[in-house]
Amino acid sequence: MNLIESETPIPVPTLPDLLHPGSRALFRHWETIRGERSVPSRSDLDLRKITEIVPWLFILERNPVRQAYRWRLAGTGIGLLWGRELTGGGFLDEWRPHERAGFGAILDRVVAALQPCIAHAHAMSIDGDWVKLELLGVPIRTTAGNQVQILGAVLPLENPRWLGHASLDSLSLQSAKLIWTEPIPGAPAGLLPSSPPSTSEAALTAFTVIQGGKRDR
Q1: Residue 213's closest CA among 99, 105, 61?
Q2: Are strands 57-62 and 208-210 parallel, antiparallel or unpaired?
Q3: For residues 183 and 113, what is the distance between their CA atoms, to the nearest angstrom?
Q4: How does pLDDT run across 29-85, given as a tens digit for each residue?
């Protein structure tokens, strides 16, 4: 089975893979504040423009030594969905073992190639209730320093019946891919590796990985 479907970019104007209006709102705000830059700064964020999804926002921070991401911040809605405090914990720890390497590779591309990613997953509570989730992640630079973090939103595509009453039991990743954005004039060279997908990406069996990223003109 060929897990790399295509390197053709998702057409940004229509954003067909963003199912939740909150995901589209966050993506459009990110595009607006980055302007002619490859990546905006956290200080550019105007949460008043996306107030309806603030409880569902998160920031991930990459461990510089190994492929690991921790919840730098997690909104109250995400905390209620997970049923516990997440800030400071490991993001990839929440996923099934065979999905962690592939999803981590996608997140690595967000940080290195400065491209957004979109993922869809099924979440199950300890009571056995299921809900579909959409996760959008966009690169953003720290206000003080030059570190790239991932700003994102976890948005239920239907009402989680267990919200605030039960905790999350498991996550099942259905798909994960990058969204290509338009090349930015003067963007740093070498943002996207020219090598083929790594073994960890190619070895996935549970979901589709589509690689992509920004290239200089």
Answers
A1: 105
A2: unpaired
A3: 11
A4: 999 999 888 899 999 999 999 999 999 999 999 987 777 999 999 999 999 999 999
**Residue pair 148/141 in contact by the 8 Å Cβ criterion:** yes
Q: What are phi and psi of 121, to 5 degrees?
A: -150, 160
Q: Residue 126 and residue 121: Cα distance in Å, rounded?
A: 16
- For residue range 152-207, list pLDDT tens digits in order: 999 999 988 888 889 999 999 999 999 988 655 444 433 333 333 332 333 333 33
Cβ-Cβ contacts under 8 Å for 152 (sequence gap 6 or more) = 26, 57, 58, 59, 60, 135, 136, 137, 138
Look up residue 12 and give its amino acid. V
Dist. CA 217–CA 182, nearest whole Å: 10
Cα distances (angstroms) measured from residue 192 to each of 10, 40, 108, 135: 17, 18, 11, 22
Kind and range of the H or E run holding 121: strand 117-125
Residue recorded with tokens 């090598």? 195
Task: Quickly tell me which residue has 């509570």 as its tokens.
Answer: 125
Q: What are the pLDDT digits (tens) for 91-140?
A: 998 899 889 999 999 999 999 999 999 999 999 999 999 999 999 999 99
